[in-house]
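Why this split exists: single-chain examples teach little about how molecules sit against one another. For that reason, every record in the complexes split bundles all components of an assembly together and asks for one structure covering all of them. Below is a record exactly as it appears in the raw files.
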Amino acid sequence: MDYSQEPHGLFFMIDNKSFYASVESVERGLNPLESVIVVMSEADNTGSGLVLAASPMAKKLFGISNVSRQYEVPRDPRILVVPPRMNLYIRKNLLINRIFRDYVADADLFPYSIDESILDMTKSWRLFGETPEAVARQIQVRIRHELGLYTTVGIGENPTQAKLALDLQAKHDHELIGRLTYADFPEHIWPITDLTKVWSIGHRTAAHLNRLGIHSMGDLAHVNPYALQQEMGVIGGQLFALAWGIDRSQLTQIRPAKEKSWSNSQVLPRDYHQQRAIELVLREIAQQVIARMRHHHQQTACVSLSVGFAWDGKADDGRSGLHHTRRIEPTDNAQTIIRELVTLFREHWSGQAVRNLAVGLSRLSASGHVQLDLFQNPQRQLKDDRFDRLIDDLRDRFGKTAVIPASSLLPGGTMLSRAALVGGHNGGNSYD
Amino acid sequence: MGGIAMIDEQAETKLILTRLAPLFTAQWHCQYRIDVVNNPYGAAINFFLDIRRTHHRERSIPLHTVATQDLEVLERVVWGIRQETALTLNFVNFGHVRWPISQRWIR
């Protein structure tokens, strides 16, 4: 393989070791690598409880993994269980990224998730050390020193290599640093046979590859890429590139989304059977999505509704849910949109128990004016519009729960209990 | 916080006690303890309620964070808490130092 035409930069992918659990350890004066700590979310819809993060020792001693359920965690007094504080983790993430900014220009820093960032060190690494490893070490020491947290660094010539170096090497390295170059792939990546270990390959893709006779990354590197692309589509070509460590993405070139849309989904705290209760939550979710869209001064011409059934509520034909979309006249009026959604729901729902609801608004356009409908009272339409805008203003100024529909107080409504959550989990105490 | 923020010690004490009240349910075979942690990385003092029950996992619930490392402020907050509850206070990461007002050892 001729790599001379491929990008040869220097990228760091840095993540925090068991981020939430580490933050909670530090807050309690414990060492993140020695404490046995489990961050458990007990939000309404996580059932008995869901492990959001487990410290390295908790993973090692008790085999607890993230997204374990409460009942899978042994009842052992050595395990310390703590509730999540999402706002605290967001603050810590911002502090960590502030440290990264001392090493790269703002334009070369790409936060990837709440505990991972990509740093394009191509232009700046020589300012800080003799070797990339030395620079990585320096960043690790600073974060440990200033925030008490341990970080893992993957180094590569492009972002994909850095990510693979992080996942496959750094996490098992006692210095917590891993490095890959194009030349390393045959030796370090091709022997991998558990394909799901590799970033971007899930168990479905792995099964598909296995069916094609591909059982290792080496096999993947030696298939005919055109045949693979024929079989799997665009992803086929990408997987082939992955096996050779090739990544031509330019992170600074932001690709605009083809079509933006607004959506929101919710896992319900229990199975919902009653039409009235389901429609109540549907309205609440719709309100939230519409508010977000209106905040950006947009209107929608297409509403979509997804309903996920409870396990026992599967339809006779084995469906696990339904998804329907409908074109409407462009509008940002909450009542109209909700009416469409409820109609859609009534048309297609036939009594199954519901556990999952999602609402989406797409085909967006700028809304600067009210399009009056010829067949309705114009005064009424103007009044509705003013009413919606007033509610928006009130919520902007005094918070999401400043005004709520009285129906949200009915049993089954989830809006009030979810208002304080961040990303679906406890945000932590206020005034901290 | 940052800067010289004035800390209302009584309000801090009250906040901690109101959060403590619903959590301290005084069950049998259950140890309750308030952890007071000096967190040098956050330049703040964290308060947690620690609950240990036989055959159960230990639990630690955040009560509040006082954004100061001034021991005099902390001493007054702690004094306020001790007036209202007899729970054990466990001081973490303070080293071997005395309270500035009473001159007793911090422990």
